[in-house]
Design a protein that fits this description.
Blueprint: H1 3-12, E1 18-21, H2 26-37, E2 41-45, H3 60-73, E3 74-75, E4 81-87, E5 90-97, E6 106-107, E7 110-115, E8 118-121, H4 124-134, H5 154-167, H6 176-182, E9 186-187, E10 190-191, H7 193-199, E11 208-213, E12 219-225, H8 229-242, E13 246-250, E14 256-260, H9 264-277, E15 286-290, E16 294-300, H10 309-314, H11 324-332, H12 342-350, E17 357-363, E18 366-372, H13 377-409, H14 415-422, H15 426-438, E19 442-445, E20 452-455
Parallel strand pairs: 1-2, 11-15
Antiparallel strand pairs: 2-5, 3-6, 4-5, 6-7, 7-8, 9-10, 11-12, 13-14, 15-16, 16-18, 17-18, 19-20
Helix pairs in contact: 8-9, 9-12, 13-15, 14-15
């Protein structure tokens, strides 16, 4: 990498694959781990948050010491490429990190991932999902503990195989158990988690809660649907239809055409997406709320693997499957046409409903899709942006206030201490410190290594 390349990178600022640090501390290794767990990236030492070149004092021995520190404190051991470069008569250090083939990587037992321009501590579920994905395993492919194939409903299996035969996506000419073994729904004569979710005589308690709401606190009707997955989808759609209006249109011939409040096929796609891609390791239910002017569908589990909201919006992505066997079963029965294309089909269905729209987002530890009736997209975006801006401002102000109180009660501390105490990223802490300094509320006293922040 030459001087022009690195100047371009610095001018572009921090992002998902670029991070600047003034010096090499533990936050630098956290960034290295986050890059290794995501898509790789570059850590530039000797650049501050304002993209100013401040330089760093280095020699061959210090570089080797840093490499040893990275190697010894990461599991599996990460050994990045490190080289120095002179920029504006100052030395900077470039640490190039490749995406690690065996993930997740930890730093002293803590796992980080890269999201936009900051590092985030991974949850236990995210750690487990990443481990399974790297091993090319699927959670639903594991044997269901304590059960035999006698726990499966033969009539449901027969109906599944009949539908698969009619669709023609899989050739069936053997007995049902052999077929389920070929589809990996039965493993060593025992049912997998997927087969129990699909065919159990006694359905697992993976509920769908669906209700009719007048407002957020007034419930008109409520139902808990506890059934195997194919049947649960069907029962859910029946309930939703009971609270939808339908009109009849004539297009020049005798037969009338039904026109529902929302495109039925789009709703089915959304429910299938919630059922097929939900995180079944989470105890929460799928929740569906029907209001006068919208339908909200929330499914436990965030987007899986490397998928992001931005990639979904671009419509040019490779689908990652959390539940491979369940997805395969719904594909073979014709319920889903192509992995990862559900949102494209939802938008196609909405073309005949120009006054309706939908919104897809992550909330807490779930994915939520909302269908709006008689509301143009522009109006929705105005409300969403306003809400987001308010939420961001409130979140920033709350963080700044907490940091101010912490400095007041615990003076002479620095960013790593504040980050741990407030359970926030070092990048957030640095931004809050910058705001408090600009407001004249705090100051740094003492030497860089031994000093800390104090209230003015």
């Amino acid at each position: 990498m030459n001087r022009i390349d690195i100047e371009t990178i610095i001018n572009n600022g921090e992002n998902e694959q670029t991070e600047f640090k003034c010096s090499f501390q533990k936050e630098a290794i956290e960034s290295i781990v986050a890059f290794a767990n995501t898509n790789g990236g570059m850590l530039v030492i000797g650049i501050d948050d304002n993209k100013k070149v401040i330089g760093v004092s280095i020699n061959d021995e210090s570089i080797q010491n840093w490499l040893n520190n990275i190697k010894q404190s990461t599991t599996p051991a990460v050994i990045p490429d490190i080289h120095d470069l002179t920029l504006k008569n100052k030395k900077i250090l470039i640490i190039d990190v490749k995406e690690y083939p065996i993930k997740p990587v930890s730093y002293k037992g803590r796992y980080y991932k890269r999201v936009k321009n900051s590092n985030h501590l991974m949850t236990p579920v995210e750690i487990s999902d990443m481990h399974l994905k790297v091993l090319n395993l699927s959670w639903d492919a594991y044997e269901y503990p304590g059960e035999t194939i006698d726990a499966l409903d033969n009539a449901k299996i027969q109906n599944f195989l009949k539908t698969v035969n009619e669709i023609g996506r899989f050739s069936i000419n053997e007995d049902p158990i052999t077929i389920l073994e070929k589809l990996k729904l039965i493993k060593e004569s025992k049912p997998t988690i997927a087969s129990m979710l699909l065919f159990a005589k006694e359905p697992l308690r993976m509920n769908i809660r669906v209700g009719r709401f007048k407002d957020d606190i007034t419930i008109i009707d409520d139902r808990q649907i506890t059934d195997t997955l194919f049947e649960a989808v069907e029962e859910t759609m029946k309930f939703i239809k009971t609270y939808m209006m339908v009109a009849y249109e004539f297009h020049g011939d005798i037969q009338r055409v039904e026109k529902w409040d929302y495109p039925i096929n789009a709703l089915i796609e959304a429910i299938l997406n919630a059922v097929v891609h939900r995180n079944y390791a989470e105890p929460s239910d799928i929740q569906i709320k029907i209001y006068d002017n919208k339908i909200v569908i929330a499914s436990p589990g965030k987007l899986y693997g490397d998928m992001t909201i931005e990639k979904l919006q671009e419509k040019n992505y490779q689908s990652s499957l959390r539940n491979k066997l369940i997805a395969e079963a719904f594909y073979l029965t014709g319920n889903i046409e192509k992995y990862g294309s559900g949102f494209i089909r939802i938008e196609d269905e909405l073309k005949d409903y120009p006054e309706n729209s939908y919104e897809f987002k992550e909330i807490a530890n779930a994915m939520q899709i909302t269908f709006y009736k008689n509301q143009k997209r522009e109006k929705i975006n105005e409300g969403v942006n306003e809400g987001v801006n308010e939420g961001v401002n409130e979140g920033v102000n709350e963080g700044v206030n907490k940091l101010y109180s912490l400095i007041k009660n615990c003076p002479n501390k620095k960013t790593p201490f504040f980050s741990e105490e407030l359970d926030s990223s070092p990048k957030n802490i640095e931004r809050w410190i910058k705001q408090l300094k600009s407001e004249g509320k705090i100051e740094f006293k003492g030497a860089p290594k031994t000093g800390g922040y104090f209230i003015k």
